[in-house]
Design goal:
24% strand; 9 strands; globular; six-stranded mixed β-sheet; three-stranded antiparallel β-sheet; Uracil-DNA Glycosylase, subunit E
Length: 219
């Protein structure tokens, strides 16, 4: 009989990213970093993975943001370094988010997993305590979910905080208003997953991110 070991994983990037991102108009929000699951399972590529959000070398998230940054600035030589113990690689990603005026977070602060990193593999999740503060900050105007699954969790969290969807959603963008009045609105943007499980090409992903985030990213 095969026995499976269930890992309990805590999201160690959340607090720092929350503190850095406050005041930025748009937040990129996923579910839970697959790289932390891979770390627990002992399957890291230490020379290529990065100890940060979307840190797997196979995930295309940072390649997308690098291209958007190049288009915004004209700096076509811009690139990011890699390596698990490479502090510079983390700082470069934090600086890129700041340059694009993007916050970054996830819906879960703790999960259990047997080693699988897809959304369906996450068990007994605990919602991030930072979501309400992100929603309530006066500068936050958009939440960009990096999967349909994350978008559903964010939608439920918005409802719990008193936000209600406006009748029409266009181009994967759902406008929500707060129960206190229309002066506080939020846009929930659903982005395609940058995971290698998504069969869309990098070019397709860049095009969809550009289209849906262009209103919010300015350098």
């Amino acid at each position: 009989m095969v026995e499976f070991f269930m890992f309990t994983l805590f999201h160690r990037y959340l607090q720092g990213a929350y503190q850095e991102g406050l005041g930025r108009p748009c937040w990129i929000i996923g579910t839970f970093p697959s790289i932390l699951i891979r770390e627990a399972a002992g399957t890291l590529q230490r020379d290529r993975d990065v100890d940060y959000f979307y840190g797997s070398v196979q995930n295309r998230f940072w390649a997308i943001l690098v291209q958007l940054y190049k288009e915004q600035t004209g700096d076509h030589a811009f690139s990011l370094s890699r390596g698990w113990q490479n502090r510079k690689a983390i700082e470069e990603r934090r600086a890129l988010l700041a340059a694009l005026r993007l916050g970054i977070s996830d819906v879960y602060e703790e999960v259990q997993s047997e080693g699988g990193s897809s959304d369906g593999d996450l068990c007994n999740p605990r919602i991030s305590p930072y979501l309400p503060a992100i929603f309530q900050h006066p500068e936050t105007i958009a939440l960009a979910a990096t999967s349909l699954y994350a978008a559903r969790i964010i939608h439920k969290a918005l409802l719990a905080e008193g936000y209600f969807p406006l009748p029409q959603a266009q181009n994967r963008q759902q406008r929500c208003y707060h129960r206190t009045g229309l002066e506080k609105t939020m846009t929930l943007v659903t982005l395609p997953s940058p995971s290698p499980r998504n069969r869309k090409s990098l070019t397709q992903l860049i095009g969809e991110y550009r289209e849906r985030l262009s209103h919010y990213i300015k350098t």
